[in-house]
Amino acid sequence: MILMYLFEAYLDNRQHRALKLPTLPKPLIGVISNEKFERSRAYSLDKSCFHCIHEAITIVMDTTILYYRVLPWFWKKSATLVTEVGLNAENEMIHPCVLSWCHGLVTEARHGFNKIGGPYLALYLWGFMFALALLMMTIYPVVIAPLFNKFTPLPEGVLREKIEKLAASLKFPLKKLFVVDGSTRSSHSNAYMYGFFKNKRIVLYDTLIQQCSNEDEIVSVIAHELGHWKLNHTVYSFVAVQLLMFLQFGGYTLVRNSKDLFESFGFEDQPIIIGLIIFQHTIIPLQHLLSFCLNLVSRAFEFQEENLSAMNTDPWYSAYHYSHPPLVERLQALDDSDSKKED
């Protein structure tokens, strides 16, 4: 954990120096006004400072908790308090830091009816999370999102005609086209699509419409999102996340009965929820590596295809942290593509 923090702190420092550069990068000269560049630079520097402070505090807290064995102390302390009030301290549900879903697993296992999933625990856990993901993908845009934002059909006009024409040219089964009042919470602009099979819908943020100077700019944003659909990027990403989740649950099932692992963190017994916490700590370096690999894939997807994001970016920091390449890299990629065509 400390080595990962030092490495990422080094990247943060490189990025902070890049953000302090007072001039626009060459690809953005004449494209971005100096006023907007200064706003972006101030915004990015503030975020960078806050991030550095947050990460420093986090690593100190995490290291202290692990090194001084705060978790096992808390676990034993809670067991003592539970015993004093006359409850069964062996029941993990009584401990304050045990999640509610452990109740059925622990109780059933004590009476021999449940072996805590046995060899198929990883499959059960993954199946539950997979079903939950599909459920949320289905009900969030239709039921939950409208509780917080207002969705109105895009009025008839030139913009609607161009978007429908674009969707038809790609054989995108567009059923509904909405505008959401994203400006009530943020000035960031965006557009997204959702829906399964032949029931696709596109949502435009009102900020996107306000910030673009003409319909063609908005259509180009939609074209980018439809490009992800046409090239199956969304499906690939979903499958990759599900595979990683299954491997993560599978990894936990391999170590959940490891007495040595629990003892190395100061635990004499092997509580289920503590096993999950310990496992999450032990795979932190692997998670960072996988996150970096997924960012590389995501950036590759983006290159196959008006916010205050950073304009001067350090290449190492960008490659490690950004799933979406910044504006400068996108413009450079376009220039490189034009150069190849001319050659």
Automatic annotation (TrEMBL):
The chain crosses the membrane at residues 123-148, 235-255. Proteolytically removes the C-terminal three residues of farnesylated proteins. It is an enzyme of class 3 (hydrolase). It comes from Eleusine coracana subsp. coracana. Residues 15-104, 115-150 form the CAAX prenyl protease 1 N-terminal domain. It holds the Pfam family Peptidase_M48. GO terms for molecular function: metal ion binding; metalloendopeptidase activity. Signal peptide: none annotated. This is CAAX prenyl protease.
